[in-house]
Each structure stands twice: as structure tokens, then as C-alpha cells.
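Dear colleagues,

For the upcoming journal club I promised to circulate an example of a predicted protein-ligand complex. I picked one with flavin-adenine dinucleotide because it came up in last month's discussion. The inputs are reproduced below in full, followed by the predicted structure.
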Amino acid sequence: MGLNIDREKCTLCGDCISACPFAALEIIDGKLIVNNACTVCGICVDVCQEGALSIERTEAKVTRDNSEYKGVAIFAEQEKGNIHSVAYELLGIGRKLADKLNVELTAYLLGNDIKDINSLFHYGADRIVFAKDERLDHFNIDRYTEVITKIINKEKPEIFLGGATFIGRSLLSRIAVKLKTGLTADCTGLDVDDKRNLIQTRPAFGGNIMAEILTPNHRPQMATVRHKVMKPMRPDESRKGRIIEFGIESNLLTPVEFIDFIIDTSQKVNLAEADIIVSGGRGLGGPEHFDIIEELASLLNGAVGASRAAVDAGWIPYSHQVGQTGRTVSPKMYMAIGISGAIQHLVGMQSSDFIVAINKDPEAPIFKVADLGIVGDLFDVVPALIKEIKKRKGL
Ligand SMILES: Cc1cc2nc3c(=O)[nH]c(=O)nc-3n(C[C@H](O)[C@H](O)[C@H](O)COP(=O)(O)OP(=O)(O)OC[C@H]3O[C@@H](n4cnc5c(N)ncnc54)[C@H](O)[C@@H]3O)c2cc1C
């Protein structure tokens, strides 16, 4: 696959050069040249009025019978026997996909002594494939890859989802390579089309566009979803399902030995767990003004978040950053103060239950996602809020 230039048609107008986000096109000695930076994205083809540019695409050969693949499966991550809440979120979206496709939803669970295994049924699973083995007690990349690849080869799900956690990211990428299929990381939306293709939506080109990615020729279709992006369904304790034990015959060789868990104390804020987050952005004007954000957060028993602009300016550490290159959060209430609402910020917080925006610009994009918008100077609004909360708390 490559970019073809029809020199007869090319007028050297330069439209493709200015449109190319990778600086992959240039005119040298009166000729349009494509260099190694080309990713064959096709933007230049779309802008060329003369039809001088084209991409030669070869259809991928389908070497397996995709019709054998049926069902939706998710990886139910666990730590110390406790099921990670991202598994319930994956079951929430997995349930919707399975219902649309009219198939079963299965959770793949690896471990030994698992607490509350039935919760997977309560949150939407029809079946659990459980690889119960003490060697799978703690996450081990070699063993988990081997076992899940075997489960998938036996079960043949058409869709397999995992959390974009540290574990999920490293695991699903290896499994995808072993299965020779595609993987879309960090999806913000998942749906299916009428051909049973998984529509995997995620930000692309620095978050400036939302791309819809399909994997029409390979199965399973694999995707990871960040924690707190999808909503779990309301648990139904009357839901029941089948547990299928997956026997492990191999000796699960690995050069890695589990020694101990060590708690990382370097991250002082736990944005992912906070019910209320009060975030400050460039509108604060300087690091010294984060004190009003901290005071408001502390009165609300919340955590302090920030936009990347505030982090990049060195006003607050990166561990507070919310957004595409920071944390994805989904608190009960998110307050965006002096934050414009760039798409890269929105993808990290727009699934919050209730969003409050304080901004002096009534046209700021943050107001499009806000449940409550206050147009005003934050240096008037925030101290007034603090005063009122203190009054109501009797402080
Ligand atoms: C690849 C990539 C990844 C990125 N990842 C992230 C990410 O993870 N998180 C993130 O946040 N950004 C991210 N960004 C950056 C993003 O595009 C924006 O630049 C950033 O979010 C802007 O931060 P801001 O809203 O604080 O600043 P600005 O866009 O400058 O907005 C400041 C806002 O404050 C308002 N304001 C100013 N003064 C006052 C006042 N006195 N009272 C009330 N309102 C006031 C203004 O009206 C304005 O709306 C990323 C960008 C790229 C290209």
C-alpha cells in the first residue's frame, strides 16, 4: 500500500503539502515527492482537486472462517481475588453489544481464590469461563497470554474486550499478536453495524477527530476501553449464569516470579476513585490561584484535577491531569473551572454524572457538556461558592 502521484495531473498547487499533518509531501526540483513520514492516511488524496493522488490498497486476505466466531467476551481483571470495577464496565457495554448481535456474553476470569464471582452475572454476564489455578493468582504476562489465547482459540468469540489498565493494555496487545488480529486501544465508544462489525470509536490525530475503526477481516475483534469510560449496568442479583471451568494442561512456563505487592505511594491523588473532582485550568492565571480550587475541593470532600495547560505550565503535578493524556475520570460531580473544554480534556471527563462549568466565555465548548454552566469570572464565583458552603456547614 502506498501513495501514487500522477505527474500528468499534478499542477504543483501545494494544497496537499499544506494539508499533510506529517510534512510528508514536498516539491523538489519541480516535482511533488512523498517522503518516509507518509502514513498513507489519505488526507492529501481528499484535498487534491486534480485527482493526481491515489492510494493503492490491497484487500487483506481472509484466511479463517469468520462465521465460526460467535459471542462477546470480556476479560474480567482481578487483583488479590477482587474483581476490578473495569470488568463491570466492560460487561455493561458487552451486554449491549451481545443483545444487538443476539449472542451470549462471557467473562474470562483467571485466578484462584476469587471473591464474589457471581457479581459478574449480576452485572450482565451469561457465562464465566474460569481458569482456576493458583499459578494464575497474580497477573503474570506470559501465563495470562497463554491461557487467554487458548480460551479464545477454543471459544472463538467474535468480540473480545479488555480494560485499558496497565494489565489490560499489555495483555490484549500480546494476545492480538498471537491471534494475528487487530486491536483498537482506548476506545471511547463501541457499537456494531449490520454486518456484525464492531465499530470502535477513539480519538485520533491528537484528539482532533473521532475515528471509527473496523476490523472486517479478522476475528476476534479486539478493543480496550479505559476505566470509567463505560457505565456498568445496574446490578441485578437475581441474574444467574453458567461457570465453565477451563482446565490447564500446560506447565505455564514463565521467567517471571511473583514476589510481593508494593503500594505505590508516589501518587498522592486518586482521581479515579474520587466522587467529586474540582479541576482548574489556564483560566486560573497562575499556580498561586490553585489554592481556591484546593479549598473548594476540600470543602466538598473532593479531589483536585487540572487541565493539561495548567500541568504543562508547571502549576500543578501531572498526577492531577484529566484528559486524553491524563486520567479518565467519571465522578458524581465534576467541576471545570477556567477550563475551555478542548476535546482532549472532554474525553477524560465527559462521562461524569454531573458537570459544572465556570467560565467567563459564554461560547466556551465546556458549556456544551455541562449540566450546570456559570458564566462569570472564576475569581468572583469560586470565592462566593466557598463562602456559601462554609455558611451552610457552619464554618
Ligand atoms: C495530543 C494531545 C493530548 C492532550 N491531552 C490533554 C489532556 O489529557 N488534558 C487536557 O486538559 N488537555 C489536553 N490537551 C490540550 C488541550 O488541547 C487544551 O490545550 C487544554 O485542555 C487547554 O487547557 P485549558 O482549558 O485549561 O486552557 P484554555 O484552552 O486556554 O482555556 C482557559 C479557559 O479559561 C477561561 N478563563 C480565563 N480566565 C477566566 C476567569 N477569570 N474566569 C473564568 N474563566 C476564565 C477562558 O475563557 C478559557 O475558556 C492535549 C492536546 C494534545 C494535542
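Two points we might discuss: The chain has a mean pLDDT of 93. The CA atoms of residues 250 and 306 lie 48 Å apart.

See you all on Thursday,
B. R.
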